[in-house]
TrEMBL record, chain A:
Keywords: Cell membrane, Membrane, NAD, Quinone, Translocase, Transport. It is a peripheral membrane protein. The gene is nuoD. This is NADH-quinone oxidoreductase subunit D. PANTHER family: NADH DEHYDROGENASE [UBIQUINONE] IRON-SULFUR PROTEIN 2, MITOCHONDRIAL, NADH-UBIQUINONE OXIDOREDUCTASE 49 KDA SUBUNIT. Belongs to the complex I 49 kDa subunit family.
TrEMBL record, chain B:
It comes from Paenibacillus sambharensis. The chain crosses the membrane at residues 12-35, 84-107, 119-140, 161-179, 191-211, 249-267, 273-297, 309-332. HAMAP family: NDH1_NuoH (MF_01350). This is NADH-quinone oxidoreductase subunit H. Its main location: membrane. One of its GO terms (biological process) is aerobic respiration. InterPro entries: NADH_UbQ_OxRdtase_su1/FPO, NADH_UbQ_OxRdtase_su1_CS. It catalyses: a quinone + NADH + 5 H(+)(in) = a quinol + NAD(+) + 4 H(+)(out). GO terms for molecular function: NADH dehydrogenase activity; oxidoreductase activity, acting on NAD(P)H, quinone or similar compound as acceptor; quinone binding. It holds the Pfam family NADHdh. The gene is nuoH. It comes from the Bacteria. Its EC number is 7.1.1.-. PROSITE patterns: COMPLEX1_ND1_2 (PS00668).
Length: 366, 338
């Protein structure tokens, strides 16, 4: 007797395209997915619980390890939350340095995404081109704070290290270089028929769905919603700079791809202005008490990380350690739409859609 | 060689044939060794890397070291695998890959078998390798391997049809299925006598279908590493894996040689004044260009999707190949016959 059976396929946690130790259990009917259950937690380290026994400066290295592709923005969201609670004034030079490293980080993060996404689609070379250019940013960071991935650069009240001599010039040299490389990327990849056929019209959702799932970042803007916290709720010095927020129309993987590449361009635009306005001298640390004890109360701040809206909620009882610390991680929230998008798609599109969401498992599991 | 084949078989001749066959196998294995090295170097350079450069001078012994490593590895067969088929599959993949090489003529006199249905022989035997991939995928008892094997079956069957029909045009122009006669039909001194110009549709379809038959980028779906991990050979390791890899590269050799013979004029020089250079050199040059082209593709293209692949095969390539047959027939009827 001939009968058909559904195939239960376990994708991950060891799988080349789940971007780390993420796992999805999919039910396949032929190559068509009928059900998908994401399983997460393989990289859970209990950052939020650990933080309850650490003082605020000690928590900063832990934030590096959440979204390890974009450690600078994680540093910032924690420091920003504590500073908001304590009402601290940040010296302008420190704030400029923070902004420059955050925008460089956004470029680096999108480059990693671009390279690995093309790798998921099956093209190997762009990955190496992206890493060549990211390497320059990593070296800049290395020069600034002595680390290539987990920087531990920002402090409550400022930054740990001032920029060494000539560092700002190197940043300004990088901007035109990266712009020319972006054109190269477009020539190499963005017009490739095979690539376009793979990502156009895949993983479509509308703005209403995106909002109801709490999506943010490029995943939200691809639906046409103009929502970028750097514009809508300016923090740091973003209100001083002119830049555009790219939005999509159709809400598919192609729009997400286009938006992320355009965001690199806009980041370079911000960087160019920031480098020009960079103050000559000044402190890099504000006046901060020796032991950081935010007053009793709660605070929630949110900023725009490369992956979307990263938030930090601190409950303080007036002690040196937080009573409770909670991070709103964009990767975790953005991932929730995945099962909905996967139903009815093929195995190949699973990889395209998952890659398009742009998760970092360190941040999903925290 | 050609004269020897026509003489009656004696013990002396049999010995020469055996020696020649072993020599050819040595050449093919040497080609595979250095094709892998060449591919890694070329792709390395295209990707801003240096490629292998540690084992031996310029890394020339890298593939040798890799093969030794594979030979020394433990021979694992998954417990729930179908043992007989699991062992049989790599052998079944590799035998036809070597068998098809028999009909390739290298020069006027250097060839190993003079079959009147050489094209048919090639197409028929290379089809068997598909079976081996499906068997390997099925016998592994692994879901990824099964998906890879099934994709492979679908892909290779779909692309064999346009491949065969695209050859028909050049067969019609030469009036023979004998590969030597096909090369002879492309003589005339100049490169525009080669079949790739009058048969440009056939040549295009043939190249695309050939890349697909080779399971190489952008058609490497059976082993798509980003979704199926490694596809049909995910459970294979050690020497059995080496056999699958060997098959793949022997087919690169075979397809490059076949393309040279069918469309690029085999051993003929591109211009009469260049005919002083021996035919074998021209053959090797054309052959090397095709091999480079295949490796180049891998550094350039993303992978196509299964449904797009099938759609492209049946809706674009097959009609094009059939149109090519009609156009060629009309051309022969109108211009050549009268």
């Amino acid at each position: 007797m001939i009968r058909t059976e559904e195939l239960l396929l376990n994708v991950g946690p060891q799988h080349p395209s789940t971007h780390g130790v993420f796992r999805i259990i999919v039910k396949l009917d032929g190559e068509v997915i009928t059900d998908a259950t994401p399983v997460m937690g393989y990289l859970h380290r209990g950052t939020e619980k650990l933080a309850e026994n650490l003082n605020y400066t000690q928590i900063i290295p832990y934030t590096d390890r959440m979204d390890y592709v974009s450690a600078m923005t994680n540093n910032y969201v924690l420091c920003h939350a504590v500073e908001t609670m304590m009402g601290l004034q940040i010296p302008e030079r420190a704030e400029f340095l923070r902004l420059i490293v955050m925008e460089l980080q956004r470029v680096a993060s999108h480059l990693v995404w671009w390279g690995t996404y093309l790798l998921d689609i099956g093209a190997m070379s762009p990955f190496l081109y992206a890493f060549r250019d990211r390497e320059i940013i990593i070296n800049l960071f290395n020069e600034l704070c002595g680390a290539r991935l987990t920087y531990n650069y920002m402090r409550v009240g400022g930054v740990k290290w001032d920029a060494p001599d000539g560092w700002i010039d190197k940043v300004s040299e990088f901007i035109p270089y990266m712009e020319s490389k972006l054109e190269e990327y477009d020539r190499l990849v963005s017009g490739n028929e095979i690539f376009l056929a793979r990502i156009k019209g895949i993983g479509v959702y509308d703005a209403e769905t995106a909002v109801s799932y709490g999506l943010s970042g490029a995943n939200l803007r691809c639906t046409g919603l103009n929502w970028d916290l750097r514009k809508t709720e300016p923090y740091s010095l973003y209100d001083r700079f002119a830049f555009d927020v790219p939005v999509g129309r159709t809400g598919d993987c192609y729009d997400r791809y286009r938006i992320r590449l355009e965001e690199i361009r806009q980041s370079l635009r911000i960087l160019r202005q920031a480098v020009e306005q960079f103050p000559e001298g000044g402190e890099t640390m504000g006046k901060v008490p020796r032991v950081i004890r935010p007053p009793e109360g709660e605070v929630y701040v949110r900023i725009e990380s490369p992956r979307g809206e990263i938030g930090c909620h601190i409950v303080s009882k007036g002690k040196a350690e937080p009573y409770r610390l909670k991070f709103r991680r964009p990767s975790f929230v953005n991932l929730q739409i995945l099962p909905k998008l996967l139903i009815g798609e093929t195995m190949t599109n699973l990889i395209t859609i998952l890659g398009g969401i742009d998760i970092v498992v360190g941040e999903v599991d925290c | 060689m050609g004269d020897l084949l026509r003489e009656p078989l004696t013990w002396g001749h049999a010995l020469i044939f055996a020696a020649a066959a072993i020599l050819l196998m040595g050449i093919v294995l040497g080609f595979v060794t250095y094709a892998i090295y060449f591919e890694r170097k070329v792709i390395g350079w295209m990707q801003l890397r240096v490629g292998p450069n540690r084992v031996g001078p310029f890394g020339l012994l890298q593939t040798v070291a890799d093969v030794l490593k594979l030979l020394l590895k433990e021979d694992t067969i998954p417990r729930k695998a179908d043992r007989v088929l699991f062992v049989l599959a790599p052998v079944l993949a590799f035998v036809p890959a070597f068998a098809v090489l028999a009909v390739i003529p290298y020069t006027q006199s250097l060839y190993f078998a003079d079959l009147n249905v050489g094209v048919l022989y090639y197409v028929a035997l290379s089809g068997i390798s598909t079976l081996a991939i499906v068997l390997g995928g099925w016998a592994s008892n692994n879901k990824y391997a099964l998906l890879g094997g099934m994709r492979s079956a679908a892909q290779m069957i779909s692309y064999e049809v346009p491949l065969v029909i695209s050859i028909v045009g050049t067969v019609m122009l030469s009036g023979s299925m004998n590969l030597r006669t096909i090369v002879e039909a492309q003589s005339g001194g100049w490169f525009w006598n080669w079949h790739f110009l009058p048969q440009f549709i056939g040549f295009g379809v043939f190249m695309i279908a050939a890349v697909s038959e080779l399971n190489r980028t952008p058609f490497d779906l059976p082993e798509a590493e980003s979704e199926l991990v490694a596809g049909y050979h995910v459970e294979y390791s050690g020497f059995r894996f080496a056999f699958f890899m060997l098959t793949e590269y022997v087919y690169v050799y075979a397809i490059a040689a076949l393309t040279t013979v069918l469309f690029l004029g085999g051993w003929h020089a591109p211009a009469p004044f260049l005919a002083v250079v021996p035919g074998l050199i021209w053959f090797i040059l054309k052959f090397a260009c095709i091999v480079f082209f295949l490796f180049w593709l891998r550094a350039t293209f993303p992978r196509v999707r299964v449904d797009q692949l099938m759609g492209f095969g049946w809706k674009v390539l097959l009609p094009l190949a059939i149109v090519n047959v009609f156009v060629t027939a009309g051309y022969i009827e109108l211009f050549i016959k009268h």
